[in-house]
């Protein structure tokens, strides 16, 4: 299992992120329009999985805003904001914030958290997702992974975007 922290207290996940250089596990998330968002439907594109507990927190919301801004300049790339938020809430957030370069993906009826090793196994947010970023290339290979050391901090955008570019 991976380890992160929540307000300096260690928190474990149910597993490990997929290893860089390995095929990305298949996933099915639910988009804000209730349509499936799948690895297969995004095939042939670079995928940035921006994974976090909930858009209702300041750091999570900021990560969506930051990746939205970056995604405007990325060719053949889809950023997916992955959380346990219901699709309706994620859609409302994106509409209110003018987020138009990010796809939302809810895990509310998915095994994504277990398949990607990011479901929090203990701590006050048990059952939600750890803050992590995974980049998948157009061939479906994981090229970058990060679990932040402290859930209340933002991911390393520069490293993730460097992996996207190349």
Automatic annotation (TrEMBL):
Listed PROSITE patterns: THIOREDOXIN_2, TPX
Reactions catalysed according to its record: a hydroperoxide + [thioredoxin]-dithiol = an alcohol + [thioredoxin]-disulfide + H2O
Pfam families in the record: Redoxin
Domain named Thioredoxin: residues: 18-166
Keyword Disulfide bond assigned: yes
Active site: 60 (cysteine sulfenic acid (-soh) intermediate)
This protein's UniProt keywords: Antioxidant, Disulfide bond, Oxidoreductase, Peroxidase, Redox-active center
EC number: 1.11.1.24
Coiled coil: none
Molecular function as annotated in GO: thioredoxin peroxidase activity
Stored InterPro entries: Redoxin (IPR013740), Thioredoxin-like_sf (IPR036249), Thioredoxin_domain (IPR013766), TPX (IPR002065), Tpx_CS (IPR018219), Tpx_Peroxidase_subfamily (IPR050455)
Enzyme class: oxidoreductase
Disulphide connectivity of cysteines: 60-94
Family: Belongs to the peroxiredoxin family. Tpx subfamily.
Quaternary data: Homodimer.
Additional record remark: The active site is a conserved redox-active cysteine residue, the peroxidatic cysteine (C(P)), which makes the nucleophilic attack on the peroxide substrate. The peroxide oxidizes the C(P)-SH to cysteine sulfenic acid (C(P)-SOH), which then reacts with another cysteine residue, the resolving cysteine (C(R)), to form a disulfide bridge. The disulfide is subsequently reduced by an appropriate electron donor to complete the catalytic cycle. In this atypical 2-Cys peroxiredoxin, C(R) is present in the same subunit to form an intramolecular disulfide.
Function statement: Thiol-specific peroxidase that catalyzes the reduction of hydrogen peroxide and organic hydroperoxides to water and alcohols, respectively. Plays a role in cell protection against oxidative stress by detoxifying peroxides.
HAMAP family: Tpx
Name of the protein: Thiol peroxidase
């Amino acid at each position: 299992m991976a380890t992160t922290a929540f307000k300096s207290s260690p928190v474990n996940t149910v597993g490990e992120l997929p290893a860089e250089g390995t095929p990305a596990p298949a996933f099915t998330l639910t988009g804000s329009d209730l349509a499936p968002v799948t690895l297969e439907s995004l095939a042939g594109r670079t995928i940035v999985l921006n994974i976090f507990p909930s858009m209702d927190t300041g750091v999570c919301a900021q990560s969506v805003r930051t990746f939205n801004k970056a995604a405007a300049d990325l060719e053949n790339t889809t950023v997916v904001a992955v959380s346990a938020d219901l699709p309706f809430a994620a859609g409302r957030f994106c509409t209110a914030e003018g987020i138009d370069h990010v796809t939302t993906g809810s895990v509310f009826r998915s095994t994504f958290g277990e398949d990607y090793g990011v479901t929090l196994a203990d701590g006050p947010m048990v059952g939600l997702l750890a803050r992590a970023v995974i980049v998948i290339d157009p061939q479906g290979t994981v090229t970058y992974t990060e679990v932040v050391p402290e859930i209340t901090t933002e991911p390393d955008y520069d490293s993730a975007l460097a992996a996207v570019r190349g």
